[in-house]
Amino acid sequence: MSPGEVDLLIIGGGVNGAGIARDAAGRGLGVLLVERDDLAAHTSSSSTKLIHGGLRYLEYYEFRLVREALAEREVLLGLAPHLIKPMRFVMPLAEDMRPAWMIRTGLFLYDHIGGRTRLPKSEGVSLDGPWGAGLAGVEKGFVYSDAWVDDARLVALNALGAAERGAIIRTHTGFAGARREGGRWIATLDDGTTVAARAIVNTAGPWVGQVLGELAGVHAERPPRLVKGSHILVRRLYEGEHAYIFQNDDKRIVFAIPYERDFTLIGTTDKPYEGDPSAPRIDPDEIDYLCRAVNRYFAKPIGPDDMVGSYSGVRPLFDDGAEDASAVTRDYVLTLGVEEGPQVLSAFGGKITTYRRLAEHALDKLKPFLPHMGPAWTADEPLPGGDLPDGDFDAFLADVRRRWPFLDALTAGRMAHAYGTRIERVLGDATAIIDLGGGLSTREVDYLVEREWARTAEDILWRRTKLGLHVDEETRRRVSDYLSNRR
Ligand SMILES: Cc1cc2nc3c(=O)[nH]c(=O)nc-3n(C[C@H](O)[C@H](O)[C@H](O)COP(=O)(O)OP(=O)(O)OC[C@H]3O[C@@H](n4cnc5c(N)ncnc54)[C@H](O)[C@@H]3O)c2cc1C
């Protein structure tokens, strides 16, 4: 396929753009995805990283979304058993919050409406023992199942899966505008090149409204409702692999999640946002809010000084007119932009969890305009590296340790999760590695540059891996120097 003429031009390399690119390429469409920044540089690396139905959405009667997301949780656990791991969530009962019968009813629904088969069901538990590790003043609660994913890697794997089916992925390439001519879109990119496309997909996340404005002849819909969400990171607050879901007195919930072995991730907030979506920052009132929310449960209170990091993301939600930012629907809405001629489809809202279904729905909508596309296929095809023998991660990790005995235990575990069976392509017949620091080898950096579109130390240390949390300034410099020298 020539990059000058494609079936589908996809604008935005977050989870939704990358997911649509993979699906579309596998259906035989010629695809070009352009991402102005790095893959997953924005919302798709700033999430809470849960593959979940969203227990709290039941209170907003979002049954369609919860059902689809829970069913998708099952599918994704099968497609990426290396990257997505089951997690148990403990919700302590608190006297002045929702009564036990209400939580029990919600969890009953949560256990049943999505066709759960892979994960254990919910149950009431005593918080005296391990389920209450680190907590004080709460005796009973419930435990239920969801799953956790490295969101930025999920995006990279979708882009990789797309490229392996013929899609062209161009990072650091912005879409600058398009007009319709002779039954095609003629799009201009910010490197000055043009591309003709039979249809455009606008998955620009927080910029979805802006991109609509750059498409000649297309009426901009209501702009997306931008809602910021922030997380803080503190040193690990409790033992155990389970997460907590804490009820807060404003009826919201806040998660505390074991993160990258040494940390606890606490989030999130819901704050209407009007600034530049490319650089959202946590505000002091959000830090106070998150500390207060967990301090009513943890034995050892935390404050702003305990923070070792934070990140914020902007949700590009569909504006359903809800007053409260927490109440705006998290479901996705796909709109077609023109009455006739070459089409543009825009995606509003959505979840990391539902990206694959969003992609299927997007392509269903585009089918009349691109009738030669093949049928849906992604529900049964593992993501790159996800074809673990019997889907058994522990057995796979044991194989990795036997095959590359020079890897320390942490690095072997990290790489097995990140690459799954693709670790073979990273390490191959290596008998040793040159360690740039924290177990990051020159081989791994080479692989990430050659196969996963990484360019900078930040791409590698914060998105393709999360090693940025663990390594020092010296390692960062070594990674940067290595990248400069290999150019
Ligand atoms: C705080 C927070 C917590 C969340 N937690 C969860 C969770 O636990 N589980 C879950 O399932 N979901 C969660 N979500 C939702 C999820 O993160 C988003 O729905 C999803 O990441 C949106 O992806 P996207 O691809 O639409 O947007 P993005 O990831 O923002 O991607 C859009 C991309 O388009 C690019 N772009 C924009 N304009 C142009 C242009 N002109 N040319 C080229 N490229 C362009 C941008 O650079 C960007 O990379 C959370 C969201 C937030 C903010």
What does it look like?
With 487 residues, the chain is of the alpha+beta class. It folds into three domains: 5-43 and 153-223 and 329-366, FAD/NAD(P)-binding domain; 79-149 and 225-316, D-Amino Acid Oxidase, Chain A, domain 2 (2-Layer Sandwich), CATH 3.30.9.10; 389-486, Helicase, Ruva Protein, domain 3. Helix content is 30%, strand content 24%. It has 13 helices and 20 strands. It has helices at residues 15-26, 63-79, 100-112, 151-163, 208-213, 284-295, 355-366, 393-403, 409-419, 423-427, 442-452, 457-464, 473-486, and strands at residues 5-11, 31-34, 50-51, 84-92, 123-126, 140-149, 168-170, 175-181, 184-189, 194-202, 225-235, 243-247, 253-259, 263-267, 271-272, 307-317, 333-336, 343-348, 435-437, 440-441. The strands form three sheets. Strands 3, 4, 5, 6, 11, 12, 13, 14, 15 and 16 form a ten-stranded mixed sheet that branches. Strands 1, 2, 7, 8, 9, 10, 17 and 18 form an eight-stranded mixed sheet that branches. A two-stranded antiparallel sheet has the order 19-20. Helix 1 runs parallel beside helix 4 (151-163) and helix 8 (393-403) packs across helix 9. The protein is globular. The mean pLDDT is 95. It binds flavin-adenine dinucleotide. Residues 11-17, 34-37, 41-44, 46-50, 52, 174-175, 203-207, 211, 229, 268, 313-316, 347, 350-353 line the site of flavin-adenine dinucleotide.
